[in-house]
Amino acid sequence: MEPSAVDALLCPVCGLEFMEPLPGETALKCIDGHSFDIARQGYVNLLTGNGTKFSQDTADMVAARDAFLDAGHYRPLAEVLAAIVGSALAASAAHSPGTTPLLLDAGTGTGWYLQQVRESIPVQGADTFAAVGLDISKFALRRAARRNPEAANLVWDLWQPLPVEAGRADAVLVVFAPRNASEFARVLRPEGRLVVVTPRPGHLFEIAQEAGMLGIQAEKEANLVESLAGYFALESATPVTIPLLLAPADVRNVALMGPAGHHAAARELAGTLAGLPESTRATAEFTISTFRPR
Ligand SMILES: C[S@@+](CC[C@H](N)C(=O)[O-])C[C@H]1O[C@@H](n2cnc3c(N)ncnc32)[C@H](O)[C@@H]1O
Ligand SMILES: [Zn+2]
């Protein structure tokens, strides 16, 4: 956890700042003495005691998503995303010289996209940046903390006020995760940008049945823009289309990592997937939308 990431955080109990944890310290403490354990893997659970009504992704769902992403199928998306986030960070940071740019990854999951952005950023003009990754799943954060040890990886519910100072973030990234428009607007600098990745209608339609995605409503661009309209204006929308060749194991991971993973009976799934050919063609269709605060 880099100091510049901790510096942007606020204690969810009292709203005051955190102290820099010393190397080897096992808790993150605010200046009023509220203390949150730093897990062995390096993430911090700020929700302690608060509880949450959201069902978090299970360890199996998280493992499936990580395996699918690590297979590299969505790397073309990550490359375009890194370019967009990199220039948003650089443009915003140009207005506050002398500070380290801050990226908030809302619903960071296993941190794969954040890692891809970090790895490509020196070529995007922003030499370095601090990152805060929020997710409600501690299973996901265990992996995220290993992938992005410099980031502050925090267990947090995105529908609660975010434990981040107002006007601090140069970019908020949301890849297939909940969007709390008012909180994203509060934590962004005026020159900051909200970057949202959503699937387009038709995303993976070829395997929708096998992957238990039938009946899941793909989000329309207009709905996204409307849902954020109180706080953000759309600046650009970049479509990314990726032709995929998927092995049965890939299709299985897609099935388990999505909403169906919450109830997918493994045995039932095994039956459906047993009949799959060696490779299945599918098309991933995304939109990367960039919004500026109103
Ligand atoms: C589809 S995954 C995407 C994860 C990551 N951005 C990626 O693309 O690999 C959605 C993520 O949002 C998280 N999530 C869902 N509801 C949340 C909430 N209320 N607060 C924080 N995270 C949440 C889940 O735990 C999950 O990691
Ligand atoms: Zn406190």
From TrEMBL:
Keyword flag Methyltransferase: yes
Domain Methyltransferase intervals: 104-192
Coiled coil: none
UniProt keyword terms in alphabetical order: Methyltransferase, Transferase
InterPro entries in the cross-refs: Methyltransf_25 (IPR041698), RlmA_N (IPR048647), rRNA_m1G-MeTrfase_A_prd (IPR016718), SAM-dependent_MTases_sf (IPR029063)
Domain 23S rRNA (guanine(745)-N(1))-methyltransferase N-terminal: 10-47
Pfam families from the UniProt entry: Methyltransf_25, Zn_ribbon_RlmA
Single GO BP term: methylation
An example Gene Ontology molecular-function term: methyltransferase activity
Record's protein name: Methyltransferase domain-containing protein
